Amino acid sequence: MIRVGQGFDVHQLAEGRPCIIGGVTIPYERGLLGHSDADVLLHAISDAVLGALGLGDIGKHFPDTDPAFKDADSLKLLRHVWGLAKERGYKLGNVDATIIAQKPKMAPYIPQMADVIAGALEAEESGQVNVKATTTEQLGFAGRGEGIAAQAVVCLAKVML
Ligand SMILES: Nc1ccn([C@@H]2O[C@H](COP(=O)(O)O)[C@@H](O)[C@H]2O)c(=O)n1
Ligand SMILES: C[C@@]1(CO)OP(=O)(O)OP(=O)(O)OC[C@H]1O
């Protein structure tokens, strides 16, 4: 059986925060604000996996009112979400994600992000994880540099026993 999920997330850019996207710390003058480390890309992918499983969203699994998730490492959250998929007998088909940011330039960091995500989702072949980036041509909140968004689509395949 094939299941598909999609995820979308936005975090505000603020001074005095590290810029962690796709599990990679990017040198930049501002970083993403959130209850956790605010890794917008890993949140979108986590939501896409949960969506494919019909299990709600990361806010349901990791409430932002719970001090346990203050400054949480979103890679650990994604690994937990992936555990839910494995328990239910799913393997990764593929993930395709887009980071929506005017700045910083993501391209140099995308291969490392894809490796981190492939590791967390236990990808078995190259090309199962695709990460892209786009500006919004200076339009809207992303274009003004107020925040960064990410969206993701995930396909899961049930392992046949
Ligand atoms: N934050 C970003 C945004 C975009 N890129 C790369 O630049 C290409 C052109 O972006 P447009 O928004 O003008 O289409 C895009 O395809 C990405 O490869 C980036 O690295 N970082
Ligand atoms: C990850 C959680 C939990 O720390 O917090 P945030 O970093 O604020 O992220 P968000 O994408 O708003 O939603 C999920 C939250 O519950």
Automatic annotation (TrEMBL):
Enzyme class of the recorded protein, top EC level: lyase
Domain named 2-C-methyl-D-erythritol 2,4-cyclodiphosphate synthase: residues: 2-156
Binding locations of a divalent metal cation: D9, H11, H43
Site (Transition state stabilizer): H35, T135
Required cofactor names: a divalent metal cation
Catalytic activity: 4-CDP-2-C-methyl-D-erythritol 2-phosphate = 2-C-methyl-D-erythritol 2,4-cyclic diphosphate + CMP
Key words of the record: Isoprene biosynthesis, Lyase, Metal-binding
EC number(s) recorded for this UniProt protein: 4.6.1.12
UniProt KW Cell membrane keyword: no
Any single Pfam family the record assigns to this protein: YgbB
Cofactor note: Binds 1 divalent metal cation per subunit.
HAMAP family: IspF (MF_00107)
Subunit field text: Homotrimer.
Family per record: Belongs to the IspF family.
PANTHER family assigned: 2-C-METHYL-D-ERYTHRITOL 2,4-CYCLODIPHOSPHATE SYNTHASE, CHLOROPLASTIC
Protein name as annotated: 2-C-methyl-D-erythritol 2,4-cyclodiphosphate synthase
Organism whose genome encodes this protein: Paenibacillus artemisiicola
Gene it is expressed from: ispF
